[in-house]
Amino acid sequence: VKLVESGGGEVQPGESLRLSCETSGFDFANTYMRWFRQASGLGPQWLAAIDVDGTTDDFNDVKGRFFISRDNKKNTLYLQFNDLKTEDTAIYSCAKDSFRGQGTQVTVSS
Fold this sequence. Notes:
Blueprint: E1 2-6, E2 9-11, E3 17-24, E4 33-38, E5 45-50, E6 56-58, E7 66-71, E8 76-81, E9 90-96, E10 99-100, E11 104-108
Parallel strand pairs: 2-11
Antiparallel strand pairs: 1-3, 3-8, 4-5, 4-9, 5-6, 7-8, 9-10, 9-11
């Protein structure tokens, strides 16, 4: 199993960003996938999930701002952020079951 996140960086409050998670080594199209984030000094926080039929679920605090999606032809998971806030600063990682990737850093700063 391999999960490689990309797309992070430093942005200003109110901006948008899209993260990608390229996967390999398993049947992505038939796998429930999730996004997590971990801010400095805190534990991992579940953000969003997407089922094999495209049904999504997300954490209340990010509802309406974060959107999870998948491209089964590319074996890639996405997380679209809108209206980023300074408190969104964290390392973002995708997950298959209990396995998470190394993550990509998102820093929101003015």
